[in-house]
Amino acid sequence: MGQTSLDESSIDDRIAQRLKGLRAERGWPLEELARRSGVSRATLSRLENAEVSATAGVLGRLCAAYGLTLSRLMHMVEDAHAPLVRRGMQPVWTDPDTGFRRRAISPPAQTLAAEALDCELPPGTRIAYDDPPRPGLEHHLLLVEGRLQVTIGGQTHDLAPGDCLRYRLFGASAFATPDHTPARYILFMV
């Protein structure tokens, strides 16, 4: 019971270190990553030096450039595999621009494929991703509370609590909440 949640600033620092490491592993200068991701060289430098917190949109573009899911990137900055992770120790990341929060509810394991996230999107928020991190990634999205509009491959789905949307992601996607209603959903990725 005495456990506390992981400090978000330490997660930002670890994200910065991992982003720098991924670029170094590939031998890409900042200019190459900027070209591949569409994120400016200046922004990349500030992210890698932990001078700013990354947004979901920027992390999505970087993950696409590296061929990783956002969750996989987050697992790379989290602790090693443990079969049980208590709620207080589940890493939480918040997008500084939109307030989008994601809690990694599955125990982190780089060798296991499936992942589960508990996500919260504030009212009147829209997050769009140009490309999937890995084409064909299977998603199961279960809306727990609120309302959520999910656009996949040009088709929009309006979800109510209890609805589950199952899809494979090959192109652009977007998640949006109505002006006065937030959304909380569980996202399973395989």
Write the topology of this structure.
Elements: H1 8-26, H2 30-37, H3 41-48, H4 56-66, H5 70-77, E1 92-94, E2 101-104, E3 115-121, E4 126-129, E5 137-146, E6 148-152, E7 155-159, E8 164-169, E9 173-176, E10 183-189
Antiparallel strand pairs: 1-2, 2-3, 3-10, 4-9, 5-8, 5-10, 6-7, 6-9
Quick gist of this model?
This protein has 190 residues and is an alpha+beta fold.
The helix count comes to 5
Number of domains: 2
Number of strands: 10
Task: State Rg.
Answer: 16 Å
CATH superfamily name of the largest domain? Answer: Jelly Rolls
CA-based shape: globular
What's the mean pLDDT score? 86
Proper CATH architecture of the largest domain: Sandwich
Placed side by side, the strands forming the largest sheet appear as: 1-2-3-10-5-8
**pLDDT under 50 segments (min length 5)?**
1-6
User: Could you give a short account of the major beta sheet?
Assistant: 6 strands, antiparallel
Helix % is: 25-40%
Order of helices and strands: HHHHHEEEEEEEEEE
CATH topology of the largest domain: Jelly Rolls
Distance between the termini: 31 Å
CATH class assignment of the largest domain: Mainly Beta
Structural class: alpha+beta
Proportion in β-strands: 25-35%
Assembly context of the chains? single chain
Characterise the protein shown here.
The chain has helices spanning 8-26, 30-37, 41-48, 56-66, 70-77; strands at residues 92-94, 101-104, 115-121, 126-129, 137-146, 148-152, 155-159, 164-169, 173-176, 183-189. The protein has 190 residues and is α+β, with helices and mostly antiparallel strands. The protein has 2 domains: 8-76, 434 Repressor (Amino-terminal Domain) (Orthogonal Bundle); 85-189, Jelly Rolls. It has a 6-stranded antiparallel beta sheet. Strands 4-9-6-7 form a 4-stranded antiparallel beta sheet. 29% of the residues are buried.
